[in-house]
Amino acid sequence: MSKEHFIAMSGSYGCIPDNIATFERKADAIYHIICTFELALYGRKADNLREVGYADLGGDYGADYAEIVRCTCDNVEIHNQD
Predict the structure, then answer these.
(1) Is 29 helix (H, G, I), strand (E, B) or coil?
(2) DSSP line for 36-51
(3) Crossing angle for the helix pair 26-36 and 44-52, nearest 10 degrees?
(4) What is the per-residue pLDDT across 37-74, written as a single tens digit (0 to 9) for each?
(5) CA distance 19 to 63
(6) Where are the alpha helices (DSSP H) in 1-82?
(7) Residues 29-36: contacts with CB within 8 Å, 24+ apart?
(8) Buried-most residue among 18, 19, 33, 49 (CB within 10 A)?
(9) What are the boundaries of each domain within the chain?
(10) What is the pLDDT of residues 19-38, one digit of tens each?
């Protein structure tokens, strides 16, 4: 049986994500992105992550976008950055 988990990722447009992490809770995935890019905790970009799971970073933070994706696959380890 698969367990729900959340994938936090970021990168450049048109490329595979260069930063991927998996979390059991969506809130933890959001906090990871906020800390990684030092976003304002209650700023527009953090609010977008909470509301729609996506934030356009515009390259200002070393990445073009950050995204949170809900997943229910059977193998959580497949998402690790190895």
Answers:
(1) helix
(2) HTT--TTSHHHHHHHH
(3) 150
(4) 999 999 999 999 999 999 999 888 899 999 999 999 88
(5) 9
(6) 26-36, 44-52
(7) 29/68, 30/68, 32/8, 33/8, 33/66, 33/68, 36/10, 36/66
(8) 33
(9) 5-75
(10) 999 999 999 999 999 999 99
